Amino acid sequence: MKKSERIRVMLADDHPIVMAGFAMSLAGPDIEVVAQARTPEEAIETYTAQRPDVLILDIRFGEQLTGLDVARRLLAAQPDARIVFLTQFDQDSLVKECYRIGGRAFITKDCDPEELAAAVRRAHQGELYFMPAIAERLASLSVRGDESPQALLDERSLAIFALMAEGLTNAEIAERLDVSSKTISNASQAIKDRLGVHRPADITRLAVRHGLIQP
Known about the structure:
It contains eleven helices and six strands. By secondary structure, it is α/β, with parallel strands linked by helices. It folds into two domains: 3-142, Rossmann fold (3-Layer(aba) Sandwich); 149-209, Winged helix-like DNA-binding domain superfamily/Winged helix DNA-binding domain (Arc Repressor Mutant, subunit A). The protein has a six-stranded parallel beta sheet, sandwiched between helices. Helix 2 packs parallel to helix 3. The chain is elongated. It comes from Pseudoduganella armeniaca. One of its GO terms (molecular function) is DNA binding. Residues 8-124 form the Response regulatory domain.
């Protein structure tokens, strides 16, 4: 294959060792890594300048923007952008959001290098690719229904739930949201009943599992 016909890939991750490892594993007769970025802002700038065929994008990096923010901006400007999401987290809510905003593939960082290369090739062809275990979970979700906090709670309740999961008391949440403690007390009880969780540790685990707070 001629060099001009190789798939031009860009990597965006805030861990240089991770990027170096994936860049090395991807190098081959049909794939070349042409650019790297270590911050969301740099990712947007470099992608716009280089216009790679496929962007491999970490979901959680940066302080102001995230990988999802980067994807939203790039896809808004270039709807046919091919983005492979790479992450150490695989919560159902994250996978669904990546798919919803237009991601072509979702890969965890413990994947086999050949699996990442396969995801790049599929994304380049405009096809979707999810790791088998993740695809199976998504199929299960579509059958049994979405029972995530994001699906069961409205926006305000979800915000309160996230603060509960971070360990804030009702009084602290009330102060943060500028409402009465009684309002938060009633809301938090309704949230617990709706989600079927009542112990603080279970609330935190549920929020982490669905990507609402970081572990």
